[in-house]
Amino acid sequence: MGIRMHKLGERCDLFQEGGWVTDPAIDKRMDFHFNAILDVVSDWRNDKSQKQDTPLGEKVQEIKKDFLQESGMQFSELEEKVLQFHLSNLEFACGSTLDQVSARFWDHNEFFAQFSGDHTLLTKGYSVLLHKLAEGLDILTDCPVCPSG
Q1: CA distances from residue 33 to 60, 135, 149 in whole angstroms, order as listed
Q2: Exposure of 31 in the CB half-sphere (CA atoms within 13 A)
Q3: Which residues form the Amine oxidase domain (predicted)?
């Protein structure tokens, strides 16, 4: 379509309310904890004696609670926000809230080919796609629609 795109780099700052950038060390640490929680979910799922499914959101909260109790750690308010960002990003990937996603099958699509290529942004926004697709079409607005007979 000849639409200009901007390739995103590997580094992507995580901004907090007020516009300040999250300390990359905090983001890295909470990304580690996020992935560790998902690893425990995978271990739970692979336990053959475990036959019942549960919502992923419930399982994540249970694992997080157990980890914090056993380790004696506490996440700061900022760390908790960053963890919630990672969980929200997982909801985006799953297309649903984690309370409506299976803890057993949340990543079943990982076994299939994923989207490939660079991550990009359309520099003039996604509406450019609609305008390109509409070229040559007779589109009318503010007109009554009548069934053809």
Answers
A1: 11, 48, 62
A2: 9
A3: 46-145
